[in-house]
Amino acid sequence: MRKIIALVVLMAFLFGIATAAYANPYDAKRDPKRYGGTLIWGSFSDPIYLNYLVSTDSASVDNISLVYNRLFKYNTKLEIVPDLAESHRWSADGMELTINLKKGVKWHDGVEFTSADVKFNIETHLNPDVNSTRKGNFTRVKEVQTPDKYTVKILMSEKDAALMSRLAEMYISPKHIWEKVDMKKIRESEHNRKPIGTGPFKFVEWKSAERVVYEANLDYFEGRPYLDRIIYKIVPSQAVLMVQLQTGEVDVAFIPASEVARMRKVNRINVKMVDAPIVDVILWNYQDPTDIQKPNALFSDPKVRKALDMAINKKAIVSEVLKGVGTPAVGLYVPALPWYNPNVKANPYNVAEARKLLAQAGWKMGKDGILEKDGRKFQFQLLTNKGNINRERITVVVQRQLKPLGIKVEPRIIEWNTFVNKHVMPGKFDAYVGGFSTGLDPDQTLFWHTKEGVKAGGNGFNRVSYSNPEVDRLLEQGRGETDVAKRKAIYNRIQEILANDIPWTFLYYQKRNWGINKRVTKFNVSPILEVHDWADWAVK
Fold this sequence. Notes:
The chain is α+β, with helices and mostly antiparallel strands. It is about 25% helix and about 25% strand. It has 15 helices and 27 strands. Helix 8 packs antiparallel against helix 10.
């Protein structure tokens, strides 16, 4: 019953037809005694683009959250409330969204934020020259109108129950900066490294593999932040990061699950564990990494993917790698959200059955102990990004677990930017260990729709070129369905299909484990949302 109520509340905010107006949640005066100080946020991942128009990685979005704002955002009750918007209204037929903007908001260079910025951002995501990963979020937008400086009208070609959520995820970049850039070369622009936003912190400098520095925006429209500065410090690995968290060289860092128990014993650190819509997975590429238009001889057969899924012991991974801080996963929908389908079950761990499936798929044991088929041995590189302790360990565990089946796995650890740009995005991999944050809306078009696959020329998160006509149809149906029960039924069915197709092996649901130095006297970390407002953090 609680989940149904949560769904109704969520849908009311996602697709209401009445006018919605809100009180400013930051009207209360800040305590001037808390002003000042520098917070050092540690990470082993260098951002790639400080621009939401082209960013795809979590390190970039973490930094973007300091500099930019969105039209809307979620509060701690998972309700959508204004950020740059003042109010919104849907037309009775659900085909027109009118957004009234806050007045007097300034970009960090002093230029006023207006409706033209909103129009520019949505249209840029849709611009084929940009090839935005998030283009699929706005494909039902027919036109964006700007009747005046503070009013935006979004006209739809079809109903879109996910649009409000997408607007609550989209950080707004300044039109007056980016309209001067050739969109075909947007990723090469110097502005990706010198962001100008409307947010609580202003960009100061970025030294790759070292640090990104921000200073307080004293004119922030929600009130100046408590902190004077935030330094995003980049270190070589999670192991180094944990040492620096212990010594106080960094104030805030994500703690890998395997280190939680040990870090709880460190006197200077508070450990805060929160649910998060994050799943770690192994992606099996349906397409040949050397020719994306050809099927992958290893993983295009569903029997093989099921065999791999059954031969990988997820419970052992959670126990061995995460030290029990995690839960074996069934799919990309997480149990903490009301869209999760509890009736979908994972494949049981069963090595004997996995061997049978591989034999049925035509794989036979070679003289060297490695499976063979049509002159090809069953061996592949399992990639992951350098510095992530858990994922590096998982590649070794999977190598060990698959070896008895006659499968040779070669772990390969790659520097983050190279991993993303040279392998993941262009589909040049057989398999890799990664993680995804899904957001709060159930629409997962960017992950599963055929058109978002690399083979189809898409730039979404369908990195393995998964394709299922029924899933495509259901995703499109779900986007336009505003009835809560009907929408949940659609996504329940999608979860059932994905559990059968096994495009990925879903390893475990993560908790986000924050390590926070006790000199941080005020912080705002909530379940699912994590950081609600960086302007509210303070140090002594």
